[in-house]
Amino acid sequence: MAGNWKMYKSPSETSAFFERFNPLVSGADHCEIVICPPFVDLAAAVEAVSGTRVEIGGQNLYWESEGAYTGEVAGPMLAAAGCRWVIVGHSERRQYFGESDETVLKRTLAALQAGLTPIVCVGELLEQRESGQTEAVLVRQFEGGIAGLAPEQFARITIAYEPVWAIGTGKTATPEIAADAHRVIRGQAGAKYGADAAAAVRILYGGSVKPDNVKGLMAQEEIDGALVGGASLKPDSFAAIVNYNS
Ligand code: 13P
Question: Rounded to the nearest whole angstrom, what is the distance from the C-alpha of residue 157 to the centroid of ligand 1?
Answer without folding.
Answer: 19
